[in-house]
Protein 1
Amino acid sequence: MPPKTAFLSAFLVCLQPSFLRAADLAIQSPKNYQVFQRADRNSATIRVQGRASEIGAVWQYRFEGKSAEGELLPETWRDFPAPLQKDRFDFLTTTPAGGWYKFEVRGLKAGTAIALATVEHVAVGEVFIVAGQSNAGNYGSEPQRSQSGLVANFDGKSWEPANDPQRGAGGKGGSFLPAFGDAIAAQFHVPIGLVPIASGGTSVREWLPEGEKFAQQTTTGKGVRAAAEGGWESNGTLYNTLASRLSELGVLGARAVLWHQGESDAGQARSGYPADRQISGEQYTAFLEKLVAASRKDAGWALPWFSAQTTYHSEQDASDAEFREAQSRAWKNGITLEGPDTDALRAEYRQGVHFNAAGLRKHGELWAQKITPWLENQLTEKKQRRTSLP
């Protein structure tokens, strides 16, 4: 090619993009590090939402990365299933279990890209809400980190890697969540999403929906208010957080709730608190049943709950028979599924009522041991996840 011709061709190529106005593009869903709950072993439905300014452009998307089966996803671009509606896009797409995936959206005009946006970490895996009191939150002696890099945390606004302290839960120390998430990720080869909402020192009464009444004030006096007709009632703060997370995740948007709570209700009078604030084991089970039922009603589906056996205060007060029976009664009565017995974690795993680093890791392992066979059964049997309430 003669020098003049080559120069002119290069000049025109350089000018070509300037003839096309760059489009504004923003992806609102999925979010970075978001984990979508899979519907079965192989896939989940992901909602894609955002804004784009060029309605006349061709808009496309794709996921890149390796699935849970070890297969690379096709790198081909797929057209949006419908045109933009007033500069918005909103559609559902089925995506294989696995991740982290890179998600991209682009706009084309006259065969040239006018916009590109990327979300670097998106996954289809397992999502768990973690509720209860301090040992479900960040009160362990040493902050923990996910070793797999496959565990993410959702605080109601954004998703981030699940390193302690866990956003959304009380406390500034360590938690069992990284160890639990790593164990489940290793077993099922998918990323894990954790939604922590635990609050230290809380009674089951404080977790009830607003206006639920009871005769005894809580040990700390928090999370409740005097009822107009006498007695006490929940102010609903903690329950509203749970309901909000369930709404944000959507129907069938989580695998289960992990409930670790009981120390603040068991044997409080023995610990020197006013005896008139002590509830019975039977009351405990009844309150937990109310909480579970309310959450399922607000979630709009039969959300599974796992509950732990946890009454430990110290080596001198290591368990409470009445409340251990109350917690196991919840399993026997079908209110919750059986979680771990963390009263078995004694002095070598403890720092006071809370856990040391070894205890946090062991705590996570105990939860994984309870969840793994149940979850494997759910996936193997291809059971229909219940959307109807019991």
Protein 2
Amino acid sequence: AKALLDENPKPSEEEIRHGIAGNLCRCTGYLQIIQAIKAASEQK
């Protein structure tokens, strides 16, 4: 998540999903992780 925000400080939800896609298993939802990254991007 840090590398994603370093590269793109204000990512859209789609950009967040794309940015973490290779690092997460597809077996569950990651809504809370996406929300946390979005919240962190809004604090910068």
Protein 3
Amino acid sequence: MRSDLDDHMPQDFNSDPCNFMPEIEDEEVKAWALALHCLWPQLCRKVADSVQEQPERHTLLPLPGYFFIPGQRFRELYYWDTYWVVKGLLVSQMPASAETVVKNLLHLLQEHGHVPNGSRSYYLNRSQPPLLSSMVSLIYEAKRDTLFLLEAFEALQQEYKYWNQPPKAVRLVGPNGSTVSLSRYYANTTQPRPESYREDVATAALLGGSKTEAEGLFRDIASAAESGWDFSSRWMADGRSLASLQTTRVIPADLNAFLFKFEFDMARFAEILGKPSLQEMYSSASESRRSAMNALMWHESSACWKDLILDRQPPATGVFASSYIPLWTGVAAPGSEQATRCLNSLQASGLMQRGGIATSLSETGQQWDGRNAWPPLQAMLIEAAEAVGRAQMRASPDGRLLAQAWLETCFAAWRKHRQMFEKYDASKPGDPGGDGEYPVQAGFGWTNGVALSLLQDYGWNP
């Protein structure tokens, strides 16, 4: 059977880019950085003509431009992965490729009313963490193209609506009896995932409940996939088993942090584009979300934001890296006492290990738990630590040390395996991560993007 994808050479790829990583003095590290840069063509694909001509015969969704797959089993464009791919492409002096990839996501948004989990038809019933406004911001900062921003802004308003209306948006009672709106992951399906059909049916069999209960579980499984954290004890009522998933009952701290940043970005875009009424609307929405998160999710004794569980108080227990993502998006102003306390909490949490930041303190056999260290979590929390340090008018030793630990992990694995992995073991620098539904994957789009960004920002010389 003919593939629905064709290999593609990015138009702006240069195997020896000018003035690449001049701050790196170590020759072996510089060679590694160049090797990462040279992986982009290996991951670049375009949709085959057969898909464009007969889309009904394929699960791959037509796209106007080329894109970058994560690697190995992942053979399509994914939503939130793309943010770190775009950052890496910009480091690699490939702004046209970065813009092309973002325009693919905008195309999917315009075609389907939201950005799907990935560019397959079976992903249309769910999305992924909403980072598209952040990607648009990266492209605008790189190219200063107001026409691009205007076209993106119009599409982004639909993406914002998708995340801020029922069933994803939930009305909650806030301080003093006021009503506030926060969002959750909620996939539009009650069926097993087509790409993991047997696994989902087997999980439902463990539940042993009615058809209605099985359908609810299938929705919670797909909603966990929508979160990007598939799977984690964050979503499990008993903290152990997939059959106890309750994803749609969870109001996640990180999702609402992403939406806070989405609102902040939209207010800034509206200001640039001369749309004062929309600027005010999005500014007000971001402040309302900040207030609601601080009132309902901020855990005073832990100094971080915890997920809410519907119909249950207080917020969820457990130590997860997601509780610190609001620090990255600015829910706590970087110069505030709250931000300093949150960073101190991260340092004392037990998550910071020799080989990076662990996902949680629970070893459950799920890939978004325990000592698995994921590139996007490292990147967000390193940048958060750096922002707190800058606001205090000092270089952040926390950000630099976290970046160094992560680069050492990736570099050690590269020297051993000559591969970049989807995730790593935070307790054993240089070892790939484990657990989950499939073996650890190599490639790897977001890992390469994060490493290139950190190498540029910190100029690592071991």
